Sequence to fold (150 residues):
Amino acid sequence: MSIYFKAISLFIVLVVSDVLIGQPTYGQNLKLDWKSFEDAIEIAKTDQKPIMVDVWAPWCGWCKKMQKEVYPEHSETLKNDFILTRLNRDDNNSKVKYLDQSLSHLRLAQRFNVQSVPAVVFLSADGNYLFHVSGYVEPQKFKQVLMYID
Fold:
């Protein structure tokens, strides 16, 4: 086997392995279990865990960045310590029940004082509003937010 063939073979192996297993991962990158809003409220009461509400919009690039980079980096904490749900802030048709009221996703986001996306709302285990964070949050800063709740 020529040295040229060996070099090309090694190059291909390195490139393929980098593509297959060398992709950057964030944290444990566990698959997050997103619940419907109403299910999240019920499960939180039973499990006595706070709720994290990802308020997003389909057109929002920063929302997608949070979903692809920030949440996966903290997937172990999110999966173990929180009940997760999402609200599409642009959805004015779907209704959810919150504290005996039927509200659209948009109206519920407004009730949580969310004026822009992305936003992350934290609710207590009994569904009461705690606080929210607006805008894109870097992974390290998001860790501090999660530690505050936990």
In short: Residues 56 and 88 are 5 Å apart (CA to CA). Helices lie at 3-21, 37-47, 61-73, 75-81, 105-111, 139-149. The chain is about 45% helix and 20% strand. The radius of gyration is 20 Å.
